Amino acid sequence: MIRAAIVGIGWWGRMLVNAVQGKSAAIRFTAGYTRTRATVEGFCAEHSIALANDLEALLADPAVDAVVFASPHSQHGPQVERAAAAGKPVFMEKPFTLDVATAERALEERGRGSCSPSPIRAASILRSL
Fold first, then answer.
1. Cβ(126)–Cβ(91) under 8 Å?
2. Fewest CB atoms less than 10 Å from the CB: which of 24, 25, 45, 58?
3. Domain boundaries of the chain, sorted by first residue
4. Would you call 67 helix, strand, or coil by DSSP?
5. H/E run at residue 115
6. What string of pLDDT tens digits covers the 129 residues of the chain?
């Protein structure tokens, strides 16, 4: 089973968690990070998701096999670069990045990990994992 982390636990991040948590034998969210920790502590406790204090700690965690990003679009490029540098496979919600230069940098880093930009905004993508 893939032990995934969710980054960005707002409305869409919760939708992604709810789409697979306890419903898939292939993936389970075990860790998470969000800028607004206090607003998601109950949700994470309910779903057995350990909250990291920062993205670096989450990416360094050997118990995290892959990272799913549901964060603000403006953060996608740098986040993919950091996850790839940490050797973590990535599932990125669309848009992948906001400009071509950022996308190219992020995809260059991808050589150290893998990245699957979401072609459509639907939780069924995660179910297929």
1. yes
2. 25
3. 2-127
4. strand
5. strand 115-117
6. 999 999 999 999 999 999 999 998 999 999 999 988 999 999 999 999 999 999 999 999 999 999 998 887 777 778 888 888 888 888 876 666 666 776 666 666 555 444 454 544 444 544 444
